[in-house]
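Folds vary. Our protein:
___
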Amino acid sequence: MANTFDYKFNLTGNFSGQIQQMTQATDTFGVAVRKTTSDISGMTKSAGDIANFASRISANLQQLSSSYVDLNANMKDLSAIGGVVGDDLKQIEQYARESAKTFGSSATDAVTGYKLLLSQLSPELAKAPEALKAMGESIQITSKLMGGDGVAAAEVLTTAMNQYGVILDDPIAASAEMARMMNVMAAAGQAGSAELPAIKVALEQCGMAAKAAGVSFEETNAAIQVLDKAGKKGSEGGVALRNVMDTLAKGRFLPKVTQAELKAFYAAKDSADNIVTGIVAQIVRVENMHLTAHLDEGSVAQVQETNRKAIEQESDVLAQHMKKLKAMFNDQSEDLADIVRRGEGVWMSLRVFYIIAPIALFAIFAWVIYISFWVYFHWIA
């Protein structure tokens, strides 16, 4: 049989008021707990921010340390290549830092450009810090056209300088020539289809030949652009241009008959020059002759007559010589006229004309662009 217990509670007093106070206290406690939780969360977030900030500071310090180490290593390499120490080395480092501020790069990049200039042009440039600074600025400007690649920019400029044999005895003048070449290549790259890397590769093949043939740097760049547009790109265009210049330099474009006639003409010219030189020497010798003698009136008249005859003879010799020269000139003119009528020689080759004429026009166009850039950067800008 189960046991049953009955409990009875007697509650007296303000029971509802007590319950309400307990509820309010509970709510207040909950608010305090939530506030405390929020404060703890804020403190945790702040701690995370502080940790991130410290991490960024650490990364920046590591980057600065790495940049300092790289700069110091590059400066040591530069000192070894150029043989500069002390104040000169500090001045070069200062120029590198100024260049980094001006062009938004790093001092290490600037020193790397200086090293390439010393190794590829001449270590003696280290003894002219101002010229080295100017060349470094040309490298920095060119690198902006090549996606910030300072090494490639330095190779483009030093290749142009070496191929055209720019004299480095005057470093300041050499730096000005580098800036001119930079402007020419930049203008050609913007106006044509060949960009700076392709121009560099082409110059490696034809630069020295163009210099030897007396072709200007502007004309060479114009020809590179024409060949690039025609499908002869980079090294292929440079080789083609070099072959053309070699052919022109050897005179193989002239017919053999014309070459023989030109040789005969030059031989006749040399012979005529020798004759004229001999006559002039005789005249000078006679003019410098001094006679000391006692002459009476008859002797004076005889001397005057002799001088008159000598002058007539010299006049006759000169007249005959001029007549021979005129006849020789007429003969050569007729021979050349016959050559032109026969259509021989490079001047009558339409194919060569159609090649040379666009190159010449493009050279003029490139020169106009170069002048425009020069006026803009030196006067307007």
Remarks:
- The radius of gyration is 45 Å.
- Residues 256-288+303-348 form one domain.
- The first helix runs from residue 15 to 82.
